[in-house]
């Protein structure tokens, strides 16, 4: 803890960063849109994964879309995605990475904009709640990514400030939200984007997946907490 009482915190996105869900979400949105008579290619849907559902649907359906239609599609996506919850799988090294960060003095916060029930399913999949200090959900923010609200909420949960935090995420929307909040973002490729895409978006460092970040932890921004623990 620093002299002013703030803690050094690492804020982890969960979908696609700690749990292998990106393409499950893509399929669920694809099917939900198809059921609504609004088919969209999976390649386009994948590019929007990581945005809040309101932003995602505005991009896929158009800014002037019918709010009732959007709510129906979102509900269908939730139901379809929920079918995968019992089979969710953590990404390689996810739990070990969280524990390694905690062992180095970082306060570990899960910075998710998922619904509470979705987040609970992902936390069970990761299996590292013993080192998680706090977590955010969609209930904690008014504006979804790429707005900075989620990152700012995670900072509040951690009891820290942007200069004492590092974010880990898998999408350009994570990077954009962090940039607006003044928090450096480490990117991982486990969400299906390229190294170039994340780097050009502004990611400070890019790794293959949680296991790769763990293997290079000493040389990363997470090598030791800023200003000590």
UniProtKB/TrEMBL annotation:
Full protein name: HAD-IA family hydrolase
PANTHER family found in the cross-reference section: BLL8046 PROTEIN (PTHR43434:SF16), PHOSPHOGLYCOLATE PHOSPHATASE (PTHR43434)
SUPFAM superfamilies: HAD-like
GO annotation, cellular component aspect: cytosol
Record GO biological process: DNA repair
Membrane-spanning ranges: none
Keywords per UniProt: Hydrolase
A Pfam family that the UniProt record links to this protein: Hydrolase
GO molecular function, one term: phosphoglycolate phosphatase activity
Domain of life: Bacteria
